Amino acid sequence: MNRVSEVLLGGPLDEAVLVDAERSTLMLVDRPLRQYSSFALRLLAATVVATAGVAADSATTIIGAMLIAPLMSPMLGTALATALGRPREAFRTLVITVLGMVLVVGVSALVTAIIPVAANMETNSQVLARVSPRLVDLIIALASGFMAALASMRSDIPDAVPGVAIAASIVPPLCVVGAALYERAFEQALGALVLFLANYVAIQVMGGAVYLLMGLGARRYSVVSDKARKLWYTLVGIGAVVLVALLFNESMGVVRASMQERAAQDAAVAWLEGTDFRVVNLTLDEGELYLQIAGRGKEPTLGSLARKLKDSDVGLVGLSVSVVDERRMALGES
Predict the structure, then answer these.
(1) What distance in Å separates the CA atoms of residue 252 and residue 30, rounded to the nearest whole number?
(2) Would you give the distance in Å from CA 81 to the centre of its chain?
(3) pLDDT tens-place string over residues 2-54
(4) What is the H or E stretch that residue 235 is in?
(5) Measuring CA to CA, which residue among 170, 176, 203 is closest to residue 192?
(6) Longest Cα pair distance anywhere in the chain, in angstroms?
């Protein structure tokens, strides 16, 4: 055991904890009715709650759904089985994940069809937050994969699991996929699916890396021969490279969009310097900048804002600015 694995594990590897991790991630299924029924029922309930939260545009409801959603378990199981060199278990947990995805999308579409309040795919904030991956989403997914893998192998940090469930955007994007498909908003459905896949790949890559750094790639944990084990790791490595490559362009677009939004934010703040106005909300979507400011007095000119945006190399095809009266805003908050 090297120093890195000692730090990650907090000491020597506890074999009992490893067995518990295999069971909790559905790698080891020794009580199938209990384990599968728990997974399916929790996922079903989480999907109904999350879809209702999307329809009601309620972040609090969606957070509640994240707490009971178990889809992270088989996803983590695939990463663990991959690191341990167990192809059969990796394939089984992958199948469970895919079936869980299908269940979430199908149930969310059904709930959207019968729910009295339909989600507006164009204005609903919970939908808009999940129709395209942002740089912060990828960073959160990587950190969530790290924390989930760490928590699964350390009995002294079980309280991290609910936090990981909330942070990682897994079930809600799939609920948006189902709702968007029912509403025939195919662009939003595709965007939410890309967000889920980006998070899935990030969690797999980071989770697998953490398990390998813990020393779980050692020969004694594998159930296949040395030759088959080397072939397995080679295939997994090639698959990871292919998946990352497929999402690379999307990821670079996320990075560029994040940089453009930051530059637009800085330009807007500079534009309002010396006035009684402040930026309330800023959204940059496909070259369209939507800016909301609040304050009193004489409004600064749009021409000066356009110049500052141009100086900051923010390319725009449209600019929309709305002004909120500070006094009305204060009354609304009270």
Answers:
(1) 43
(2) 22
(3) 788 888 888 888 888 888 889 989 999 999 999 999 999 999 999 999 998 88
(4) helix 226-271
(5) 176
(6) 76
Structure tokens at 212: 């390998």
Q: Residue 275 phi/psi, 5° resolution?
A: -115, 175
CA separation for the pair 278, 19 (Å, rounded): 55
Q: How far is it, in rounded angstroms, from Cα 311 to Cα 269?
A: 14
Residues forming a β-bridge with 318:
288
Q: What end-to-end distance do the CA atoms of the chain give, in Å? A: 59
What digits encode the pLDDT tens for the residues 181-206? 998 888 888 888 988 888 888 888 88
Token pair 């070259």 is at which residue?
Answer: 287
Q: Which of 193, 201, 63 is nearest to 131 (CA)?
A: 193
Residue 86 CA: distances (Å) to CA of 10, 28, 78: 25, 11, 9
- Look at the block and give the residue holding tokens 């909301």: 292
Nearest to 44 by CA among 91, 98, 121, 102: 102
Nearest one of 307, 302, 297 to 321, comparing CA atoms: 302
Taking the C-alpha atoms of residue 60 and residue 51, their distance in angstroms, rounded to an integer, is 12
Burial class (CB in 10 A: 0-12, 13-18, 19+), 191: buried
What letters, b where the CB count within 10 A reaches 16 and e where it falls short, cover 229-256? beebbeebeeebeebeeebeebbeebee
